[in-house]
Amino acid sequence: MTSNGDPASGVGATATMAAMARAIATRTDSLIDDPFAEPLVRAVGIDLLTRLATGELPPGDLVDQVAIDGAKVRTRFYDEFFLDAANAGIAQVVILASGLDSRAYRLPWPAGTVVYELDQPRVVEFKTRVLAELGAEPTADRRVVAVDLRDDWQAALRAAGFDPARPSAWSAEGLLGYLPPEAQDRLLDTVTELSAPGSRVATESRPNPRPGAEEKTKQRLDGISELWREHGFDTDMTRLRYFGERNEAGPYLTARGWTLTAISTRDLLATHDLPPLADDDLRMGELRYVSGTLAETDGSHRDIGGTADVAG
Ligand code: SAM
Questions:
Q1: With a cut of 50, which residues of the chain have pLDDT below it?
Q2: Cα separation of 49 and 15, whole Å?
Q3: Measured distance CA(209)–CA(229) in Å, rounded
Q4: d(CA 287, CA 224)
Q5: How close is the Cα of 174 to the center of ligand 1, in Å?
Q6: Is residue 90 within 8 Å of residue 111, measured between CB atoms?
Q7: pLDDT tens, 229-264?
Q8: Which residues line ligand 1 (CB under 6 A)?
Q9: What's the 29 CA to ligand 1 centre distance in angstroms?
């Protein structure tokens, strides 16, 4: 996979795709309100995504309705997760793969909250610059940490001021499928290792695919990429993702001491009175949003080795 690590190319462009879906969702539904999504997409300068974000081009076949509805429920899920954590007194927030998400600028964080945003260097730099040019002010003490999340990033986070002795709230939103399986495990291990008792985590957990199911997903992603290429945006969505077997995030975290609850995309859509999934070649219905807390311990070390076999 080649990438300049910026929001216009390679896996960085997935940040712009996610923001484009939030821009459409913000324009067409009151369920979410992300006023920064559209200007950020515009600033990236991918013509097709800009025209979709602004509404100049209707989503039609170019963006599945389920991707737009998925962006709505996903944004709400993480917004509510963070506000609950903040209201419970957690003042240290870590957004892994923050992309062009604007939570550090739009959520009403209690005074004293520090929000760490981790992503590829050119993604975090881009967002900082563009939002400053727009005159947007962070609503928390926002600290950016430019890293490759496949590597060891904990030193960089600590150097930015993160204190592992204090409870924290973590999200990995729209990230795990872009990491190789072993990098996903390392990332979740690091989150656990850096989490004081009472910390919270939220992410997506996808069961391993039934035989043949991934082929359908790849075909669907190839179809979208082809359509987007015809409209001038050269991307290969299938190559950006890692397929195949991996540990499922929910059970993996549960085995490391986290107590999680889970809700499927299907149920989240129903909760918000959104239409059910019709065809689901992207297998969004199987995706479960998990969130929960790390239990208080007796001070002994947590075992973070081995393979998870506990339901999450
Ligand atoms: N969480 C954001 C959202 O929901 O809008 C962004 C999601 S976007 C689909 C995936 C993000 O993961 C991108 O911002 C990309 O730059 C980041 N990413 C993927 N692989 C990464 C890596 N190895 N290191 C750092 N960031 C990575």
A1: 1-2, 299-312
A2: 11
A3: 28
A4: 20
A5: 7
A6: no
A7: 999 999 999 999 999 999 999 999 999 999 999 999
A8: 11-12, 14-15, 18, 97-101, 119-120, 123, 148-150, 173-175, 178
A9: 25
Q: How far apart are CA 97 and CA 36, in angstroms?
A: 17
CA of 147 to the centre of ligand 1 (A): 11
Report the predicted TM-score, pTM, of the whole model to 2 decimal places: 0.93
Give the number of other CB atoms < 10 A from CB of residue 179. Answer: 22
* Residue 212 within any structural domain of the chain: yes
In a domain, 218, yes or no: yes
Tally of domains in the chain: 1
Which residue is closest in CA terms to ligand 1's atom 6? 99
Mutation probe of ligand 1 site: the residue of 120, 147, 190 with most atoms within 8 A of C-beta = 120
Ligand 1 atom index nearest CA of 149:
24
Residue 281 lies in a domain: yes
In sequence order, the 6+-apart residues with CB closer than 8 A to the CB of 74 are 173, 174, 268, 289
Across the chain, mean pLDDT equals 92
Do the Cβ atoms of 220 and 154 come closer than 8 Å? no
The rounded Å distance from CA 185 to ligand 1 centre is: 16
pLDDT of res. 302:
46
* Domain harbouring 227, CATH code: 3.40.50.150
Domain that holds residue 246: 64-294
The verdict on residue 46 lying in a domain is no
How far is ligand 1, taken at its centre, from the CA of residue 114, in Å?
20
Instruction: Determine the distance separating the centroid of ligand 1 and the alpha carbon of 113, expressed in angstroms.
Output: 23
CA-nearest residue for atom 21, ligand 1, is: 149
